[in-house]
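fyi for ur records
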Amino acid sequence: MRLNRPAFLPRAAALVAACLVLAACGDNEGGEETAAFASTYAPLKSQTTLIENAVVMTGTGERIEPGAILIIDGRIEAVGSRLRAPRGAQVIDAQGRYVTPGIIDVHSHLGVYASPGVSAHSDGNEMSDPVTAEVWAEHSVWPQDPGFNAARAGGVTSLLVLPGSANLIGGRTVTLKNVPSRTMQGMKFPGAPYGLKMACGENPKRVYGDMKGRAPGTRMGNVAGYRNAWIKAEAYRKKVDAAAAGEGEAPERDLKLETLAGVLRGDILVHNHCYRADEMAVMLDIATEFGYKVTAFHHAIESYKIADLLAEAGTCSAMWADWWGFKMEAFDSIRENIALVDAAGACAIVHSDSSIGIQRLNQEAAKAMAAANRAGMNVAPEHALTWITRNAARALGIEDETGTLESGKAADVVIWDRDPFSVYARAQQVYIDGALVYDRDDPARQPVSDFELGLRVSSGGAQ
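which gave:
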C-alpha cells in the first residue's frame, strides 16, 4: 500500500489507506524468523483495556453473565465476572452487548481469488498437473483484496487461505492474521504450521478427465494418483534423512517432494476437500497406509455418515450449514450434519469457502445450531460458538494462541451489538492482539485497502 497520497488526507477519517489509519502495516522489517517467506507480522499498538458488563462467550463452551475481560499488552490477562481495571486502563461498558473470541475461517480463498472477481485475479488453481504440491497459496495472496476488510467487519480475525480444488494435491495453505498489510508476509500468522490442500471426488477427475489423454479421469484414477505421489515422497524423505545422518548423498532438491515429505514428517497439516462419506473413508485409509494424518475434511457433506470414524481418527470436519445439491457429490446433505458430527465427539467446524459467507460465519453457525435444536439435540449458543472459534483454531494448529478467551492467549476479541446468533447482530469492535482494528462507529477504524481508494462512493459523491 502506498502512503504518499496527499489528495486524500482531508478525508482521512473515511478514506485513508489501512496502514495509515492504523498507524502500522503489520510489517516487521527485523522479523526473527529465517525460513523462506517468513512471517514479518508484528502486533499493532494496543492499550490496556477492560471490557465489562457484557455477556462473555469464551469459545470453550462457557458463558459468563455479566462478564468481563482484561487485555494487557495484547494478551488476555483475565476473564471473569467482576474484574478490576488497572490504573490508566481504557474501560468499555458493554452492557447489553456480547463478547466472543475472534472468528476463524478455516476455508477461504481471499487474496488468491480476490475481488473484483475477474480472470486477472484467478490465482488459486495451478492446473498444470494433478499434483502441484510445489506451489504455495501465499505466493498468490494479494493483501489489498477488499474481501479482507469485509471479513474483518464480520468479526473474522484469522483465516486459512487454500489453493483451489482442481488438483489431487493443490499445494500449501497459509494461515493469516486478518490485519491490513502491504505484504503477505506481514499477515502470516507467526508459528502457524503449513497445510497441504488435497482434493478428492469430482473436481480433479473432471478437470483432468476433460483433457484428452490426461489422468485422472475416474475416482480410482484419483486414488492411484495420491498413492503414487506418496510413494515418491516417502522415497525422497528417506534419502534426505539418510543424507542428514551421513549415510548417503542428498537428492537434488525437489519442491514438490519437499512439501509432501513435510506431511509425512508431521510438520505440514492435511486439509482435504472431500464430500462423500465413502471417499473420506478411503482417504483415511490412504493416510494410514503412508503414515500421515488428515487434519480436516472440508465441505464434508456426508460427514454425518462416518462421524464415529472421524472421531476415532481425530480428524476435524469443516462444513457448510446448508449448501448442497450443486453437483452430485453435494447431493446427500442434511442440515443436522454439523451437530451430528459434534455429537459423535468429533471436531465440528463451520467454514465459508466464500468471500460473502466469511462475512457472516456467526449466522452460518446459528443456522446449524437452529437445525440441531429443531431435531431435539439441544445445542446451546455458547457451544455452537466453538464451531467457528476453538475447533477452527485446533484444525489450524493455533489453538494454543487463539480461538478462546483464556488467560495468556492473544486478545483476538469481538464485541457484538447483540447476541451474535441473531440475524441482526453486527460486530461493533474487533481486536487483534489487543489492537482495535475495526470499529463500526468510528470511520477512522474502518480501514480500506489502497486499491479501494478512489472507488468508494459516499453521500458526498465519488471519492
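The first strand starts at residue 49 and ends at 57. thats all i got for now
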